[in-house]
Amino acid sequence: MKSLNEEQSQAVMDFVAWGVAMHAYSEAETVYRTNLVLAKLGATSLVQGLTGHTDTNLSDLADQLIAVQDTDFEMGWQAAIDRTELLNIVTPTPDVLAAEFERLYKVDPEQAVKYYYFISESVENVKVNDIARNIAFTHNSKYGDIEITINLSKPEKTTAEIKAAASAPKSTYPPTALDYTNEGYLGTVTAAPRLTHRFIRENFSNETWGWHYSPYAYFEEHAIFVNFKRQPMQMGLRTFTRLMQIVTRYPMYMVGSNADLPIVGGSILSQEHYQAGRHAFPMMKADVKQKVALSEYENVEVAVLNWPMTAFRVSSTDAADVVAASEFIRRAWEKYSDEKLMIHATSAEGDRQHTVTPIAQFKDGKYELYLVLRDNGTSEDYPMGIFHPHADVQHIKQENIGLIEVMGLAILPARLLKELQKVEDFLIDRASLDEVAEGHRAWAQQIKQDRQASPTTVTEIVQEEVGKVFVRVLEDAGVYKDDANGQAGLDRFIKYLASAE
Question: Which residue pairs from 320-324 have beta carbons closer than 8 angstroms and sit at least 24 positions apart in sequence?
Answer without folding.
Answer: 320/244, 321/297, 322/240, 322/244, 322/367, 322/368, 322/369, 323/237, 323/240, 323/241, 323/244, 323/369, 324/297, 324/300
